[in-house]
Amino acid sequence: MRPPPRTAFGFLLLLLLPPAPDAARKLTPCQQCRALVDKFNQGMANTAKKNFGGGNTAWEEKTLSKYEFSEIRLLEILEGLCESSDFECNQMVEQQEERLEAWWLQLKKKYPDLFEWFCVQTLKVCCSPGTYGPDCSACQGGSKRPCSGNGHCNGDGSRQGDGSCQCHIGYQGPLCKDCVSSYFSSLRNETHNICTACDESCKTCSGPTNRDCLECEEGWARVEDTCLDVDECAAETPPCSETQYCENVNGSYTCEECDSTCVGCTGKGPAKCKQCVSGYSKEDGQCAGQ
Ligand SMILES: *[C@@H]1O[C@H](CO)[C@@H](O)[C@H](O)[C@H]1NC(C)=O
Ligand SMILES: *[C@@H]1O[C@H](CO)[C@@H](O)[C@H](O)[C@H]1NC(C)=O
């Protein structure tokens, strides 16, 4: 069977150009294989309805089923696998054409999952989901639910990585089974643990509200059983300078510059001046020019 269009031009480019500077953009063999399989599956979907006239005669059924498993259909799929400028993709298809043909003609029924058959078992460039590394070992926490379902297994699905867990936000531990502080277990049984963020008023907590704090967050203080915002601006010694006013916010405060007409102020704008700068005096409660 004829190979798909080859790229003499692409090959020439490869000889003439230095290697691409950002190697990060280059796909790993597994990513390459996965992309190829995705395209192949797309090609199968695109050609699934082809040659189907809409009628249902015996003749059409026969033609259709012939086409379904035909080399013609395979060729159509192969032709759509690579951009003509994608040298590596074309090279891979060229090298693997016979295998893909064998799968198409003989092995498809026995191994319906092309990714598993081609990328994992045949080329051995990928691993099945939940496994990693040269031998496709099970990820931390097992291949069924790596990292307790609360993190990403390093190298998952590839022949790389070390299988360790990178936990999602709110989780910690080698298997991502525990909540970080400022999160609490909102659902826990033998196999699952769901961590949810505490109220902003809590440093640590046992539930979702500001009544469930074990410790109050900085800028909050316990009043009876509740952590409430501390009004720093009401402190005996105000935290801001003479030329600023204080604004209380949850858990903290900010210092803002007074209006330019003020000498000291209690808030925003010329109406909140304690006194006016020279040349200005209070009119209707505001500092105004003479
Ligand atoms: C634990 O909780 C999860 C999530 O709600 C649930 O799917 C699972 O069946 C539970 N397992 C057990 C052993 O109760
Ligand atoms: C301030 O905290 C209270 C109590 O936790 C909360 O109800 C309110 O929405 C918070 N306000 C802002 C602006 O975050």
From TrEMBL:
<keyword id="KW-1015">Disulfide bond</keyword>
<keyword id="KW-0245">EGF-like domain</keyword>
<dbReference type="InterPro" id="IPR018097">
    <property type="entry name" value="EGF_Ca-bd_CS"/>
</dbReference>
<feature type="disulfide bond">
    <location>
        <begin position="167"/>
        <end position="176"/>
    </location>
</feature>
<keyword id="KW-0732">Signal</keyword>
<dbReference type="InterPro" id="IPR009030">
    <property type="entry name" value="Growth_fac_rcpt_cys_sf"/>
</dbReference>
<dbReference type="InterPro" id="IPR000742">
    <property type="entry name" value="EGF"/>
</dbReference>
<protein>
    <submittedName>
        <fullName>Cysteine-rich with EGF domain protein 2-like</fullName>
    </submittedName>
</protein>
<feature type="signal peptide">
    <location>
        <begin position="1"/>
        <end position="23"/>
    </location>
</feature>
<dbReference type="InterPro" id="IPR006212">
    <property type="entry name" value="Furin_repeat"/>
</dbReference>
<feature type="domain" description="EGF-like">
    <location>
        <begin position="135"/>
        <end position="177"/>
    </location>
</feature>
<dbReference type="InterPro" id="IPR002049">
    <property type="entry name" value="LE_dom"/>
</dbReference>
<dbReference type="GO" id="GO:0005509">
    <property type="term" value="F:calcium ion binding"/>
</dbReference>
